[in-house]
Amino acid sequence: MTNQKLGLSSAISAGIGLIVATSCLVTLSQGVGFAGKGFIIALAIACGLNILVSFSFAELNGLMPVTGGLGQYTLAAMGPFVSMIAVIGGYIICGILAASSEAAMIGFVVNSSILPNVSPLLITLISILFLFIINVFGIRSYARTQMITTVIMIGSMIIIGVMGALKLGSGEVVTQANQAFNPMGFGVVSMTALAFWLFIGVEFVLPLTKDMKKPEKDIPRGMILALLILMVVQSIMIFGISNYVPYEILQTSNQPHMDFARLLLGKVGTGWMTIISIGAVVSTLNTILAGIPRMLLGMAEGGMLPKAFTKTNRYGVPYNGLFLITGGIVTALLTGITSADDLIIFILTGCLFWMASYIVAHLNVLVLRKRYPDAKRSFCVKLFGLPQIVGILGMIYMMTHIIDVPDLRNAIYSNAAILMMALVAYCFVWVKFVMKKGLFETISMEEVIAQDENSSDLDLNNDPDYDDEKKLETVFS
Fold first, then answer.
1. Which of 99, 152, 284, 357 is the most exposed place for a label (fewest CB within 10 A)?
2. Taxonomically, which superkingdom (predicted)?
3. How many other C-beta atoms are found inside a 10 Å radius of the C-beta of residue 82?
């Protein structure tokens, strides 16, 4: 058999995969509660900022088509010190915390609606084991699961949203106390930080690079189309939610998306939204388990992590990274961190680092344009660097408006400062005494690509779908 490749639909599914989480359904509903239908303005601004992020990641991937993503790009642009901080803080820590909270949700949802006599924690752990096994069998196994989950989830959101927007539900259409389209006026811009979380994570398309038929075209298309699809779907949901749920309920409810489904279609709606919520959790966990281990592989190839993370199984899966991320998620669940009252502080602390990693991505583009002006780029939107400059300013705005509650904001900044100091110390020691390199000592793009290609050759030789003749060509070429 020949080695099958993935197409544009897989890229779109991966782009949507991490973004649509249960927490995003809650955030969308709460945003409508505070800003009314005018929340769509904040949504559009947030979508635009994330499209700028996708421009930078698409250009970096077009310049260096590697699977490790940000860690490898930054190694060539700003050196190992910045690379390690961006990836460990923005993806590993934040990814584990976000995934564990999402994983806990699937236990609660299934327990409350389908299996009331089974422990929510047991349901969660079984679900994680199931997704772990899927990812052990390689990127195509992940892609098939992601495709099915995404179609069911997005299709259901469109149907429920359209029914609500057109007032076709069996429930009673409400008359909101404030009928204005945008009751917050210009103040709706302050909701952009909240809306931003509805689009974050589209760069998880990048780990698919080596497995795409046409990565130079499908990677940027996949990211941009994923964002635009979500913008349309969530806009429809905004109108539907506004027609069936009073704003004051949306502001105070712990599960406002379930309230919408119940008021729209009764028990049928509750069951339907349960399916959507389960799909959102599966999609998020599946994307994290597929993407982050490949980021770790890319960093290990550059010497920024132990070489153990470069080892792959016969399906090309970096299994040590997969074990680490799965173990981190399970540990967070078993220690009760995911059920703690201050979980939002941990998640938003990680998100600060995620935002910082986006700033690093924009800076990488500007640095590499200066250093390699004539290098071939399969995707590039220059415009004098304005997309990157606007993107950086947008990220800074988000970081300074992370949450409107002063006590929580101070706690988040304090945690971020402590975490940053620990990360700086760890990364300093690793770079200086393990790698024995300068903190900002870069390597050429050619070296980064060569490291990734060597890993790719090993993956192909381990792939059972890769025939013997091609193995020989790879070894002797």
1. 152
2. Bacteria
3. 22
Give the mean model confidence (pLDDT) for residues 160-179: 89
Residues sharing a CB contact under 8 Å with residue 122, sequence separation 6 or more, in sequence order? 107
Q: How confident is the model over 87-99, as pLDDT tens digits?
A: 888 888 878 877 8
Q: How far apart are CA 100 and CA 316, in angstroms?
A: 25
Whole-number pLDDT of residue 22: 67
Least confident range of 68-72, 190-194, 204-208, 387-391 = 204-208
* Residue range 281-308, pLDDT digits in tens: 887 888 788 888 888 887 888 788 888 9
* Tokens standing for residue 212: 């795409």
Closest residue by Cα to residue 248 from 32, 464, 11: 32
With 90 as the cut, is the pLDDT of residue 37 above it?
yes
CA distances (Å), 197 to each of 24, 136, 378, 394, in order? 7, 29, 29, 13
User: How far does CA 91 lie from the centroid of its chain?
Assistant: 9
Per-residue pLDDT, averaged over 184-192, amounts to 84
Maximum separation of any 2 CA atoms in the chain, in Å: 73
Q: Where are the domains of the chain?
A: 17-461
- The alpha carbon torsion through 327, 132, 459, 4 (nearest 10 deg) reads -160
Task: In whole angstroms, give the CA distance from residue 457 to residue 346.
Answer: 39
Question: What is the Cα–Cα distance from 11 to 8, expressed in whole angstroms?
Answer: 5
Contact 61, 377 (CB under 8 A): no
Coil, helix or strand at residue 441:
coil
Helices (H), 180-318: 192-196, 215-244, 247-252, 256-301
Any idea which residue has 């003749």 for tokens?
A: 469
Q: What is the DSSP string of 307-352?
A: GGGG---TTS--HHHHHHHHHHHHHHHHTTGGGSTTHHHHHHHHHH
Closest by CA position to 29, among listed 260, 244, 347? 260
pLDDT at 244: 93
- What's the pLDDT score for residue 335? 84
17-461: which CATH topology?
Answer: Amino acid/polyamine transporter I (1.20.1740)
Q: How confident is the model at residue 339 (pLDDT cuts 50, 70, 90)?
A: low
Contacts for 120 with CB less than 8 Å, ≥ 6 apart: 104, 107, 108, 110, 111
Tell me the Ramachandran region of residue 436: left when phi exceeds 0, alpha when psi lies from -120 to 50, beta otherwise: left
Instruction: Determine the residue type at 279.
Output: G
Whose CA is closest to 316, among 209, 476, 473? 209
pTM: 0.82
